[in-house]
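I am still learning, so would you mind making up any protein sequence you like and the tokens describing how it folds?
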Amino acid sequence: MKILVLGGTRMMGRHLVQALLSRGHQVTLANRGLTEDSFGGAVDRVKLDRTNEDSLRKELSGKAFDLVYDSLAYCSNDVRRLLPQLSCRKYLSISSTAVYEKHWDTREPEFDPLAKPVIWGDRADFPYDEGKRQAERALAQEYSRQPTVAVRFPFVVGEDDYTRRLLFYVEHTITGKAMLLDNLCEPMAFVRSDEAGKFLAFLGETEFQGAINGASPGAISLREILEYVTEKTGKNPVLAESGDPAPYNGETGYTINTGLAGKLGFSFSPLREWIYPLLDHLIEAVYRD
């Protein structure tokens, strides 16, 4: 298939492209060209500004794709600028479980993008969670004739995590820097970056349309993470009101149901099978640096 990937240079986007190439697809990367990729001549490239309608029109007009993956839709206007310029059989938007009021066993029908009218706006007009809701509403309400998939991921982590959010907790514990945490005991869901990419590639070869969750089974609290780091290093975390605000603050306890993905034939690795080896890697990285 002929596939356009908006983004595709980091984390799950890189793993998505690797998976697509391994399946024999023809891949075009579209981004601003600020981050180098490692794909060499295996992919085509289009340089564009995702937030500029003129740039999108200039670079995408006259081009047709079987699939389009969009990891850069953060608001309703992102959708409105892009979709009229696309000619594709199916459009897959990387959304987020932030669209939910999350709780134990959170399922796809709990956020209905048709339930409230879309509000048009740019990224600066919404907090992250509301921007993702509005992007899904724009798709569902204004572009309903376009076959679409909205893939809802929780926090994406891995050895290639450029956000350094999970590393924050490991690094602060080892170096003794104080942290401000407001959710120490709240279990949270994660997905591994390579499995997120493989899941996206898998979905592109199905006929599925609609919203779908992608997450590793299970949940883990920050208390458990910090206790593991302490066990491995002998360092105790310093928690203080004056500490650096932690990146996962504000999250309440929840898990993400991935039964729909399972019915389609995709299985995610259980969280506790890979989170501790990942923490080992992060611990080694802190000491190495």
Observations:
- The first helix runs from residue 11 to 22.
